[in-house]
Amino acid sequence: MTRTETQVTLIQIDNYGPWTVAPSPKREPDLQTLQSRLYADLSQLVAHHDGYVFFTRFDNMIAVTNGIDLAGHRRIQDAVSNRYPVTVSLGVATGASPREAVGEATANLQAAGSAQDGERTEILRGDPLCEEGAVQIAHFDVNDATSQYTDELNAFEVFRHIDRGYSALLEYMYDAHDSLSFFIGGDNVISVTAGLDRPAFDAAIDHVEETAGIELKVGVGHDLRAGDAGMAAKEALERCRERGTRVEVGASESAGRA
Length: 258
Ligand SMILES: Nc1nc2c(ncn2[C@@H]2O[C@H](COP(=O)(O)OP(=O)(O)OP(=O)(O)O)[C@@H](O)[C@H]2O)c(=O)[nH]1
Known about the structure:
By secondary structure, the chain is an alpha+beta fold. The chain is built from eight helices and ten strands. α6 crosses α7. The chain is globular, with a radius of gyration of 19 Å. It binds guanosine-5'-triphosphate (GTP). The site of guanosine-5'-triphosphate has 13 residues, from β6, α5, β7 and α8. Guanosine-5'-triphosphate binds next to β6, α5, β7 and α8. Its EC number is 3.5.4.29. Catalyzes the formation of 2-amino-5-formylamino-6-ribofuranosylamino-4(3H)-pyrimidinone ribonucleotide monophosphate and inorganic phosphate from GTP. Also has an independent pyrophosphate phosphohydrolase activity.
Protein backbone atom coordinates (compact mmCIF):
# COMPACT_ATOMS: atom_id res chain seq x y z
CA MET A 1 0.00 0.00 0.00
CA THR A 2 1.28 3.50 -0.80
CA ARG A 3 2.51 5.28 2.32
CA THR A 4 -0.12 7.52 3.86
CA GLU A 5 1.06 11.12 4.16
CA THR A 6 -1.56 13.81 4.41
CA GLN A 7 -0.91 17.25 2.97
CA VAL A 8 -3.02 19.92 4.66
CA THR A 9 -3.42 23.57 3.72
CA LEU A 10 -4.78 26.08 6.24
CA ILE A 11 -6.65 28.83 4.38
CA GLN A 12 -7.04 31.97 6.49
CA ILE A 13 -8.78 35.19 5.48
CA ASP A 14 -6.31 38.02 6.09
CA ASN A 15 -7.18 40.58 8.76
CA TYR A 16 -10.86 39.57 8.50
CA GLY A 17 -11.99 40.60 12.00
CA PRO A 18 -11.01 44.27 11.59
CA TRP A 19 -12.45 44.28 8.04
CA THR A 20 -15.88 43.13 9.31
CA VAL A 21 -16.16 46.26 11.47
CA ALA A 22 -14.46 48.88 9.27
CA PRO A 23 -15.52 51.62 9.03
CA SER A 24 -18.56 50.27 10.95
CA PRO A 25 -19.96 46.75 11.51
CA LYS A 26 -20.99 45.20 8.19
CA ARG A 27 -24.42 43.61 7.88
CA GLU A 28 -24.31 39.96 8.92
CA PRO A 29 -26.13 38.60 5.83
CA ASP A 30 -23.49 40.28 3.66
CA LEU A 31 -20.71 38.55 5.62
CA GLN A 32 -22.55 35.21 5.42
CA THR A 33 -22.86 35.67 1.66
CA LEU A 34 -19.18 36.47 1.26
CA GLN A 35 -18.11 33.52 3.41
CA SER A 36 -20.31 30.99 1.63
CA ARG A 37 -19.32 32.27 -1.83
CA LEU A 38 -15.64 32.15 -0.89
CA TYR A 39 -16.09 28.58 0.31
CA ALA A 40 -17.88 27.66 -2.93
CA ASP A 41 -15.11 29.19 -5.06
CA LEU A 42 -12.35 27.58 -3.01
CA SER A 43 -14.11 24.23 -3.21
CA GLN A 44 -14.04 24.46 -7.02
CA LEU A 45 -10.51 25.89 -7.24
CA VAL A 46 -9.10 23.15 -5.01
CA ALA A 47 -11.23 20.45 -6.65
CA HIS A 48 -9.67 21.48 -9.97
CA HIS A 49 -6.47 19.97 -8.51
CA ASP A 50 -8.44 17.04 -7.03
CA GLY A 51 -8.25 18.37 -3.45
CA TYR A 52 -10.97 18.84 -0.83
CA VAL A 53 -11.78 21.94 1.25
CA PHE A 54 -13.83 21.91 4.46
CA PHE A 55 -15.52 25.12 5.61
CA THR A 56 -14.74 24.65 9.33
CA ARG A 57 -15.01 28.26 10.67
CA PHE A 58 -15.32 29.94 7.24
CA ASP A 59 -12.68 32.57 8.14
CA ASN A 60 -10.31 29.61 8.56
CA MET A 61 -10.80 26.63 6.26
CA ILE A 62 -8.88 23.37 6.12
CA ALA A 63 -8.02 21.73 2.81
CA VAL A 64 -6.51 18.35 1.94
CA THR A 65 -4.12 19.19 -0.88
CA ASN A 66 -2.03 16.11 -1.69
CA GLY A 67 -0.63 16.66 -5.19
CA ILE A 68 -0.96 20.49 -5.20
CA ASP A 69 2.40 22.28 -5.37
CA LEU A 70 3.23 25.86 -4.34
CA ALA A 71 2.53 27.21 -7.84
CA GLY A 72 -0.95 25.66 -7.70
CA HIS A 73 -1.50 27.22 -4.30
CA ARG A 74 -0.39 30.62 -5.63
CA ARG A 75 -2.93 30.41 -8.48
CA ILE A 76 -5.70 29.68 -5.97
CA GLN A 77 -4.57 32.62 -3.84
CA ASP A 78 -4.49 34.94 -6.88
CA ALA A 79 -7.98 33.88 -7.95
CA VAL A 80 -9.33 34.86 -4.52
CA SER A 81 -7.70 38.30 -4.53
CA ASN A 82 -8.99 38.91 -8.07
CA ARG A 83 -12.58 38.09 -7.06
CA TYR A 84 -13.04 39.25 -3.47
CA PRO A 85 -12.58 42.32 -1.28
CA VAL A 86 -10.45 40.13 1.02
CA THR A 87 -7.27 38.08 0.51
CA VAL A 88 -6.20 34.74 1.95
CA SER A 89 -2.98 33.37 3.40
CA LEU A 90 -2.07 29.72 2.94
CA GLY A 91 -0.02 27.50 5.25
CA VAL A 92 0.95 24.12 3.79
CA ALA A 93 2.37 21.07 5.58
CA THR A 94 2.50 17.31 5.40
CA GLY A 95 2.37 14.79 8.19
CA ALA A 96 2.13 11.10 8.98
CA SER A 97 -1.20 12.02 10.59
CA PRO A 98 -3.70 14.72 9.60
CA ARG A 99 -3.36 16.18 13.11
CA GLU A 100 0.39 16.58 12.66
CA ALA A 101 -0.12 18.14 9.21
CA VAL A 102 -2.68 20.70 10.37
CA GLY A 103 -0.44 21.53 13.33
CA GLU A 104 2.48 22.36 11.07
CA ALA A 105 0.34 24.15 8.48
CA THR A 106 -1.02 26.36 11.26
CA ALA A 107 2.43 26.99 12.73
CA ASN A 108 3.63 28.10 9.28
CA LEU A 109 1.03 30.90 9.22
CA GLN A 110 1.34 31.80 12.89
CA ALA A 111 5.10 32.26 12.40
CA ALA A 112 4.37 34.87 9.71
CA GLY A 113 2.26 37.02 12.04
CA SER A 114 -1.21 37.40 13.51
CA ALA A 115 -4.42 36.65 11.61
CA GLN A 116 -5.34 40.24 12.51
CA ASP A 117 -2.12 41.90 11.38
CA GLY A 118 -2.89 44.31 8.53
CA GLU A 119 0.66 43.88 7.21
CA ARG A 120 0.48 40.09 7.00
CA THR A 121 -1.31 39.41 3.74
CA GLU A 122 -1.21 36.67 1.12
CA ILE A 123 1.40 34.58 2.89
CA LEU A 124 2.19 31.30 1.18
CA ARG A 125 4.41 29.12 3.34
CA GLY A 126 5.20 25.45 3.59
CA ASP A 127 6.60 22.40 1.94
CA PRO A 128 4.27 20.45 -0.33
CA LEU A 129 5.05 16.74 -0.68
CA CYS A 130 8.13 16.08 -2.79
CA GLU A 131 7.28 12.44 -3.15
CA GLU A 132 3.83 11.00 -3.59
CA GLY A 133 1.96 10.12 -0.42
CA ALA A 134 -1.56 8.80 -0.24
CA VAL A 135 -4.51 10.13 1.72
CA GLN A 136 -7.24 8.16 3.49
CA ILE A 137 -10.79 9.53 3.50
CA ALA A 138 -13.65 8.06 5.55
CA HIS A 139 -17.21 9.09 4.62
CA PHE A 140 -19.59 8.54 7.58
CA ASP A 141 -23.37 8.59 7.22
CA VAL A 142 -26.18 8.31 9.78
CA ASN A 143 -28.32 5.19 9.31
CA ASP A 144 -31.84 5.93 8.10
CA ALA A 145 -31.66 9.62 8.99
CA THR A 146 -34.68 10.36 6.82
CA SER A 147 -37.10 7.87 8.38
CA GLN A 148 -35.70 8.13 11.93
CA TYR A 149 -35.27 11.90 12.16
CA THR A 150 -36.08 14.08 9.13
CA ASP A 151 -39.62 12.74 8.63
CA GLU A 152 -40.33 12.46 12.37
CA LEU A 153 -38.88 15.32 14.42
CA ASN A 154 -38.90 19.08 14.06
CA ALA A 155 -36.04 20.39 11.97
CA PHE A 156 -34.11 21.82 14.91
CA GLU A 157 -34.37 18.58 16.89
CA VAL A 158 -32.95 16.76 13.86
CA PHE A 159 -30.10 19.26 13.74
CA ARG A 160 -29.40 18.62 17.45
CA HIS A 161 -29.27 14.85 16.96
CA ILE A 162 -26.99 15.05 13.94
CA ASP A 163 -24.76 17.61 15.63
CA ARG A 164 -24.46 15.46 18.76
CA GLY A 165 -23.32 12.52 16.66
CA TYR A 166 -20.88 14.71 14.74
CA SER A 167 -19.36 16.14 17.92
CA ALA A 168 -18.88 12.67 19.44
CA LEU A 169 -17.22 11.43 16.25
CA LEU A 170 -15.02 14.52 15.85
CA GLU A 171 -13.66 14.25 19.41
CA TYR A 172 -13.10 10.48 19.26
CA MET A 173 -11.34 10.51 15.89
CA TYR A 174 -9.06 13.38 16.95
CA ASP A 175 -8.16 11.93 20.34
CA ALA A 176 -7.89 8.25 19.38
CA HIS A 177 -6.56 8.54 15.82
CA ASP A 178 -5.15 12.04 15.18
CA SER A 179 -7.83 12.39 12.50
CA LEU A 180 -9.77 15.48 11.39
CA SER A 181 -13.55 15.20 10.96
CA PHE A 182 -15.77 17.67 9.16
CA PHE A 183 -19.56 17.97 8.87
CA ILE A 184 -20.34 18.24 5.17
CA GLY A 185 -24.14 18.56 5.15
CA GLY A 186 -27.26 16.45 5.67
CA ASP A 187 -26.19 13.54 7.87
CA ASN A 188 -22.67 13.23 6.46
CA VAL A 189 -19.23 13.60 8.03
CA ILE A 190 -15.88 13.16 6.32
CA SER A 191 -12.91 12.12 8.45
CA VAL A 192 -9.42 12.60 7.08
CA THR A 193 -7.61 9.65 8.60
CA ALA A 194 -4.26 7.89 8.19
CA GLY A 195 -4.04 4.17 7.59
CA LEU A 196 -6.88 3.13 9.91
CA ASP A 197 -8.23 -0.39 9.50
CA ARG A 198 -11.70 -1.91 9.77
CA PRO A 199 -11.62 -2.58 13.56
CA ALA A 200 -10.67 1.05 14.18
CA PHE A 201 -13.74 2.25 12.26
CA ASP A 202 -15.94 -0.33 14.00
CA ALA A 203 -14.77 0.99 17.37
CA ALA A 204 -15.48 4.59 16.30
CA ILE A 205 -19.03 3.66 15.30
CA ASP A 206 -19.54 1.82 18.61
CA HIS A 207 -18.32 4.88 20.50
CA VAL A 208 -20.72 7.28 18.76
CA GLU A 209 -23.63 4.90 19.32
CA GLU A 210 -22.78 4.53 23.03
CA THR A 211 -22.14 8.21 23.75
CA ALA A 212 -24.55 9.99 21.40
CA GLY A 213 -27.12 7.33 20.46
CA ILE A 214 -26.46 7.85 16.76
CA GLU A 215 -25.93 4.86 14.44
CA LEU A 216 -23.41 5.31 11.67
CA LYS A 217 -21.97 3.49 8.70
CA VAL A 218 -18.74 4.39 6.91
CA GLY A 219 -17.08 3.95 3.54
CA VAL A 220 -13.30 4.32 3.39
CA GLY A 221 -11.09 5.21 0.42
CA HIS A 222 -7.33 5.54 0.00
CA ASP A 223 -5.63 7.22 -2.95
CA LEU A 224 -3.00 9.74 -4.00
CA ARG A 225 -5.51 12.62 -4.13
CA ALA A 226 -8.31 13.56 -1.75
CA GLY A 227 -10.84 13.64 -4.60
CA ASP A 228 -10.08 10.08 -5.68
CA ALA A 229 -9.94 8.81 -2.09
CA GLY A 230 -13.26 10.57 -1.44
CA MET A 231 -14.92 8.93 -4.45
CA ALA A 232 -13.62 5.52 -3.37
CA ALA A 233 -15.10 6.22 0.08
CA LYS A 234 -18.49 7.07 -1.44
CA GLU A 235 -18.43 3.88 -3.50
CA ALA A 236 -17.60 1.90 -0.34
CA LEU A 237 -20.51 3.61 1.44
CA GLU A 238 -22.83 2.43 -1.33
CA ARG A 239 -21.54 -1.11 -0.69
CA CYS A 240 -22.57 -0.69 2.97
CA ARG A 241 -26.10 0.13 1.77
CA GLU A 242 -26.19 -2.81 -0.67
CA ARG A 243 -24.78 -5.36 1.79
CA GLY A 244 -26.29 -3.98 5.02
CA THR A 245 -22.79 -3.66 6.52
CA ARG A 246 -21.54 -0.74 8.57
CA VAL A 247 -17.87 -0.57 7.46
CA GLU A 248 -16.58 -1.03 3.92
CA VAL A 249 -13.01 -0.20 2.93
CA GLY A 250 -11.22 -0.05 -0.42
CA ALA A 251 -9.13 -3.12 -1.30
CA SER A 252 -5.80 -1.46 -0.50
CA GLU A 253 -6.98 -0.57 3.02
CA SER A 254 -6.71 -4.08 4.43
CA ALA A 255 -3.03 -3.58 5.27
CA GLY A 256 -3.84 -0.50 7.44
CA ARG A 257 -3.01 -0.14 11.09
CA ALA A 258 -5.44 -0.10 14.02
N1 LIG B 1 -22.77 16.18 1.38
C1 LIG B 1 -23.47 15.07 1.13
N2 LIG B 1 -24.71 14.95 1.60
C2 LIG B 1 -25.39 13.82 1.34
C3 LIG B 1 -24.85 12.77 0.57
N3 LIG B 1 -25.76 11.78 0.50
C4 LIG B 1 -26.82 12.20 1.19
N4 LIG B 1 -26.62 13.44 1.70
C5 LIG B 1 -27.49 14.20 2.58
O1 LIG B 1 -27.96 13.35 3.60
C6 LIG B 1 -29.38 13.36 3.65
C7 LIG B 1 -29.84 11.98 4.00
O2 LIG B 1 -29.62 11.14 2.89
P1 LIG B 1 -29.20 9.62 3.03
O3 LIG B 1 -28.06 9.50 3.95
O4 LIG B 1 -29.04 9.08 1.65
O5 LIG B 1 -30.53 8.97 3.64
P2 LIG B 1 -30.83 8.09 4.90
O6 LIG B 1 -32.25 8.26 5.21
O7 LIG B 1 -29.86 8.38 6.01
O8 LIG B 1 -30.62 6.62 4.36
P3 LIG B 1 -29.31 5.68 4.44
O9 LIG B 1 -28.11 6.59 4.33
O10 LIG B 1 -29.43 4.77 3.27
O11 LIG B 1 -29.36 4.97 5.75
C8 LIG B 1 -29.80 13.89 2.29
O12 LIG B 1 -30.97 14.62 2.38
C9 LIG B 1 -28.68 14.80 1.91
O13 LIG B 1 -28.88 16.07 2.52
C10 LIG B 1 -23.51 12.92 0.08
O14 LIG B 1 -22.94 12.06 -0.58
N5 LIG B 1 -22.87 14.08 0.40
